[in-house]
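Hi Y.,

Following your request, here is the sequence exactly as I used it, all 474 residues.
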Amino acid sequence: MKRKSSIIIIILFLVILSAKAQGFDSKSLSLSECITIALDNNISYRQSIIQREAADVNYRQTRSRLLPNINADFNYGTNTGRSIDPFTNSYIDQQLNFTNVGLNLGNQIFNGFEILNSIQRDKFNLSAAKAEEEQARQRLILDVAIAYYQVLNNKDLLELARLRYQSTDEQARRLKSLYEEGEGNPADYTDIVGQLKNDETVITETKSRLEQAKLELKQLLNVEYDIELDYENRETGLGQFTQSAQQVYENALKDMPSIEAREFRVHAAEENIAVARSLYVPRVDFFAQVNSNYSSLANLFNETGSEVVETAGFVTVDGTDYSVFRNEQQFTQESIPFLDQLNNNLNTVIGISVDIPIFNGFRARQNIQLRKLEFQDSQLELENAKNDLETEVRTAHNLMTAAYENYNLFQEQVLAYEDSFSVNEVRFNNGVSNYVEYIISKNNLDRARINLRNSYYEWLIRRKILEFYMGQIY
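Below is the corresponding structure, written out as tokens. Let me know if you'd prefer a different format.
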């Protein structure tokens, strides 16, 4: 009994662990939850944020060029051998400890407004980066919504495939009973078994497409766990989209961040031409310096009094030699303190420098030509973006209109095939019609139902795309 109880406890423990693991390995998500996760995790969107932040840093860095450059320097060293004493400016041949300190200030006064034009250029680039980040955010939301609906579409198709298999299986069971009892046409049973296997193949293929759709959604969300969707079929019919393709396109031209970003890039390229022209203009800079130094050999000699000392000379008076004495001042040597030397040796420099361009190997002219070509290229990119936008809008509008019309047609077709299949199923069950008539009617109904679901999601996806171009995004 104890052994059985232990086994039961272990089994229950493993079941609990398995349930917890399954809970962590998959999550059921709504569309809004998927969008929130994607905005936090998607790599491409995070890259657009980094690019915008880099543009912001570059803009602030360019603005800081208006501020002066202030630098301080400090040198300390030991010199041995023949050198110049920085205190006396005389040659010496002994060890010397020295220190040099300085403070430098420099600021550009004028350079053909190169800095101001660079600031304006980088400001446009920053605005473009912000628009591109917003474009990436909106595009990601749209892609997640499309991927989400693709998963739902494949789930619906899988449910239809299972219902199709279930219907075929019921017929196979009925015909099997007749076949075993020796009644009916044996070929009908073998045919229905073949159809059953075909339906199983459809289920397998639909499962594969569903898993692929989930994988694409999972990649957009950049998550490790499996995704299950909170899904309720709330289809209440399709609404007519009232905006024409031209109206959608005109609205997109005004509101789409991608077009706005291209326009900012054009302005930035234009400012870059003005930056290049500054190479033709003289540059005026202001500079100022404060310098000082210290020498370990710098000394002061302080007078301490006087003393009469005998010299080497003498005078002779009446044949007698007398030594010559003189009064000599006495001094004591004292090292000059470090801070006193820095204060005593202080010197300042102030001035203005002018750099006048005369010839630079045509570098200025060629640089301007390159900037002009970049400007023309940015204009063409803007025009190309507008053309692509118009093509995408009109394509989405045409496909949505076709899906709307097809959905209404498929609804009528499904109703017609349902009536037809009901009649043929009764006739087949009563032995009045053969298998061929039954299976043709069944396949017609199944295809109509599949087409109905596909047309619904095609309309839904294309409408979301048009709403995206209209600026109607989450």
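The chain is about 65% helix and 20% strand.

Thanks again,
Q.
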